[in-house]
Amino acid sequence: GAMWTAQILAIVFVTTTSSALKLPSYIKACSRNDPQLNECVVKQGRAAIPKFIHGDPKYRVPNLDPLDIEELSVRQGTRQVGLNLVIRQCKLHGLSNAVFTAARMDLKKRHVEWDFINTKGLEILGKYNISGQVLILPITGSGDANITITGLTITYKYDFELVKKSDGKEYTNLTTSELLFDIGHAYFHLDNLFNGEKLLGDNMNIFLNENWKDLVQEFGPAVGSALGEVFRRLLTNIHGLVPYDVVYPPT
Question: 183-224, pLDDT tens digit by residue?
C-alpha cells in the first residue's frame, strides 16, 4: 500500500485567547432550533466563503487561495519496486471556486456533514522530486510540477463535543473528522523528467495523463488529507474563539 503524508505550514494554532469573540460580521448565525437549519447553514456558508477565503487574522484564518502546503509526498511499495514522489513548496490554487452544496446538521448527535463541489478546478504547483516506478515504467526527475484537478466533489464530516472553558462558556471541540472526495479528471505535467531528456519526458507525461486514474489512487489521499487538515484546523481555530451559543444560538 501507499504511504502518504501532507504537511501544512499556513495554519498556526494559537490557543491563548482572552475573551470570547462574536461571529465575523460576514457570517450570520443559524438558530440551532431552526427547522431549516441545513438550508440556513448552506446559505450563510456560501455568503461567507468569498469573505474569508483570503484570510481573516482576527479569527486565525490564513489565506486559503492560494494555500501554502509545505510538502505532499507518496511513498509506495517496497524498496526494490515502488514510487517515491515528493512535491515541496506547494501552492494550491482554486479553493475559492468551491461551492457549498449541502449540509446535514445533527446537533443533538453532535454530527455534521458538509458537501462542496469545485467545477472550475484546483491547481497544485510546486517543486517535485520523483524516483522509482510509476505503474510499470521507471521514472526519475526533479523540477516544476503542475497537477490540475477538475470536477472535484468533497464531503467533510465531523463529530464534536462541547467543552466549558474558564470563561464559563461552552465551545465546540472536534473529536473526529474525515474528508471524502471524488475527482472528475486529473492532469499532470512534470518538467525536467529524466534530467531534461525531452523525448523521454514528453512520452512519460503522455503516459501519466493516459493513466491519471491510477495515479490519483496513489496521490489522491495525500491531497485529501491536506484538504481535510485545512478544514479541521479552520474549524478548530474559529470554534476555539466563538462560543457554541453564538455560533448556533438557541433562538
Answer: 999 999 999 999 999 999 999 999 999 999 988 888 888 888
Residue 1 in this model has a pLDDT that exceeds 80: no
162 in Cβ contact with 244 (< 8 Å): yes
- Nearest 5 degrees, angle CA 73-CA 75-CA 81? 145
Predicted model pTM: 0.87
Q: Cβ neighbours of residue 78 under 8 Å, at least 6 residues apart?
A: none
CATH code of the domain occupying 2-247: 3.15.10.30
What does the DSSP assignment read for 197-210? Answer: -HHHHHHHHHHHHH
The count of other CB atoms within 10 Å of the CB of residue 191 is 15
User: Do the beta carbons of residue 232 and residue 174 sit within 8 Å?
Assistant: yes
Rounded Cα distance, 184 and 181, in Å: 10
44 CB contacts (<8 Å, ≥6 apart)? 27, 28, 29, 30
